[in-house]
Write a structure and sequence with these properties.
Length: 194
């Protein structure tokens, strides 16, 4: 989660919102919004600011997690108590909510900054956006989703007792992921046959 490869992929996904247009770039929010022309310097500044924000935010999760662990160890007498379980979920939410909010604000910074500029065209149609999205995901990634879905959903079948806590969440996640991955695989295949 914190390695350079992951952060580089996130930054590249952000940079993919800008397509080369000769001397300038065209910005499309989430690669499908209306096209807005930006200079090379503006694009480089947006990408650099996003990368800096994401790196600081991701690295801030480490001390926040240690703080959560120390707080839970101090406040809950037993790790197996219901208050410890609730504390973990509340603490994880308290860490993830600001993380996701900061990432969303950083991701949409160009659209807020460029909102007064006149677009040079219309947003991508649903079909064009779907074609673009499917071009960026491989069948191997979709197959991985199917495998993970099967492994996680198998918790329901193999459990000798009713599932609780993270086992239940994992099983529900797998049960939802499996049909989603299968449907997206079929949709990608149908899209490629057009």
């Amino acid at each position: 989660m914190f390695g350079n490869d992951h952060l580089d992929r996130v930054q590249q996904s952000f940079a993919d919102q800008f397509s080369d247009a000769g001397h300038d770039f065209i910005y499309r929010k989430s690669q499908k919004g209306p096209p807005i022309r930006v200079t090379r310097q503006e694009r480089d500044l947006f990408v650099a600011q996003f990368g800096k924000t994401i790196r600081y935010t991701m690295w801030a999760v480490i001390p926040a997690t240690f703080g959560l662990i120390l707080l839970l160890a101090w406040l809950t007498p037993s790790a197996d108590s219901p208050s410890a379980d609730y504390g973990v979920w509340i603490g994880v939410a308290a860490i993830l909510l600001p993380l996701v909010t900061i990432m969303l604000v950083a991701w949409t910074a160009p659209s807020r900054h460029l909102r007064d500029r006149t677009p040079e065209g219309s947003p991508l149609s649903r079909g064009e956006a779907r074609e673009l999205a499917f071009s960026k995901i491989s069948y191997l990634q979709l197959a991985g989703g199917v495998v993970v879905g099967i492994l996680f959903a198998s918790e329901f079948v193999t459990a000798s007792e009713p599932l609780e806590g993270h086992q239940l969440i994992k099983a529900v996640f797998g049960t939802l992921l499996l049909p989603l991955a299968v449907v997206q695989t079929v949709r990608k295949w149908l899209e490629s046959r057009r």
